[in-house]
Amino acid sequence: MNSILRNDKYCTILEEEEDMFSDVCTNDGKKLWEYGIVPYVFNDNVSDELKKLVMEAMKRITRVSVIKFVKRMNQRDYIKISDKGKFSSYVGRIGGKQNLHVTKDEIRWPNTVGSVMHELMHALGFYHEHCRPDRNEYVHVGRTSRNYERFKESDVLCYGPYDFESIMHYSEKQGVMLIPGVNARIGQRERLSDGDINALNNIYPAKYYCYINTSGYPNSYMLNYVGRLRKRRSIQRLIRRSQTQNLYYRLKLPRQETNPLFLSQLFNGCSFP
């Protein structure tokens, strides 16, 4: 997933086969979730089984980013998750309550967790990969609805090359065909691609302050790099410089990596051993 809508050109609410789009991410960030915190509530019609799948989808996103999904208390802006027999979401934070629809249908959507992740990425501000300005170099789209419309370069922010593996890409069964000579897999719903993760951490910045209180150093802080891939030696030097006040980072090693490390940010304070 490498593209998000940048202006308010497409602000009409649409509801089609899988997704509904509205007043989406602006380039000043007003349509993004502040600090990456997304309050949510479940509708009463969501089964316990479906809730577990939604929570797993949330976990997979938070595992690689600064995004944090929290149960709504009294926040004005939040997503309400309901089972409507389909998958749909607004793009970005629209203000107030916004609906996000999910369901469990193993025939139409065999990977429920991946389909939920797709909708959560919409809610975070992401558009379909096959709507990128450069999509005609890689795929042919035979449908004309807004779910398939190709945007101009002035309408979207693109991160990195065209991402066939994006969880935001439709499959051939959904009307997106690879052009002759292109050999790739599209439409996967198993995981966030490397491009998805990179774009997510660009839109929701990977650098935050981690505020803590320690004896003798009230309101002290240190920089915490979240989701940003850094060399092991660079991380070790950074940690050594920060440990003069007995402050620690929480480290996380991606399963597929053996040398690099991610630093994971905690919103309510730093992690201690």
Descriptive notes:
The protein is α/β, with parallel strands linked by helices and 273 residues long. The chain has two domains: 1-204, Collagenase (Catalytic Domain) (3-Layer(aba) Sandwich), CATH 3.40.390; 207-264, no CATH class. It is built from four helices and 13 strands. The protein has a five-stranded mixed β-sheet with strand order 3-2-4-6-5, with helices on one face. Strands 1-8 form a two-stranded antiparallel ribbon. Strands 7-9 form a two-stranded antiparallel ribbon. A hairpin with a 7-residue loop joins strand 5 (88-89) and strand 6. Helix 1 crosses helix 2 (112-124). The longest helix has 15 residues, at 48-62. The radius of gyration is 20 Å and the shape is globular.
Search tags:
single chain, 273 residues, alpha/beta, Collagenase (Catalytic Domain), 2 domains, five-stranded mixed beta sheet, two-stranded antiparallel ribbon, 4 helices, 13 strands, 22% strand, disordered N terminus, disordered C terminus, Metalloendopeptidase, zinc ion binding
What's the helix and strand layout?
Layout: E1 3-5, E2 37-42, H1 48-62, E3 68-71, E4 78-83, E5 88-89, E6 97-102, H2 112-124, E7 139-141, E8 156-158, E9 176-178, H3 194-203, E10 207-214, E11 217-225, H4 232-242, E12 250-252, E13 262-264
Parallel strand pairs: 2-3, 2-4, 4-6
Antiparallel strand pairs: 1-8, 5-6, 7-9, 10-11, 12-13
Helix pairs in contact: 1-2
